Amino acid sequence: xxxxxxxxxxxxxxxxxxxxxxxxxxxxxxxxxxxxxxxxxxxxxxxxxxxxxxxxxxxxxxxxxxxxxxxxxxxxxxxxxxxxxxxxxxxxxxxxxxxxxxxxxxxxxxxxxxxxxxxxxxxxxxxxxxxxxxxxxxxxxxxxxxxxxxxxxxxxxxxxxxxxxxxxxxxxxxxxxxxxxxxx
Length: 184
Prior knowledge:
- The chain is α+β, with helices and mostly antiparallel strands.
- The protein has one domain (8-173): Hypothetical Protein Pfu-838710-001.
- Helix content is 23%, strand content 45%.
- The protein contains 5 helices and 9 strands, in the order E-H-E-H-E-E-E-E-H-E-E-E-H-H.
- The protein has an 8-stranded antiparallel beta barrel with strand order 1-6-4-3-2-7-8-9.
- A hairpin with a 2-residue loop joins strand 5 (76-78) and strand 6 (81-91).
């Protein structure tokens, strides 16, 4: 891959009534647990809403593995599968990365937290996300639809919104909720 190409993120996301049932199903299917549940802090940056208007995202994520800076381009859909160009790098010094981002005129516009546990089945990564607004499962990679079906999810019911849009809609219904999607 040459510089600037990025990768194609291919993803399905579903609201879950409980992660325990999905975890049990993954064990039945002999999926490999690749990361225990760990806390994530995600900070979103934008400049005069230009990324939001372009359906793009600039995120700095801090978790048990360190820090990563990610750019995601606009989403398209292949059937029910969300496809986005994604560029991601590991960041050794998140404070310095944030200073660079802010020096370029980007500002922190929002943030969200979650606990994420990851599994792999074939070439598909399955993320079990516990968030302040409920539990979600994400299936990412070639074959995501097939693995989702094996885990008893219907791809036609996949959630098309990202966590930022989900939380915006949540706040519309719960105006007392904090500005960021954070745990109490």
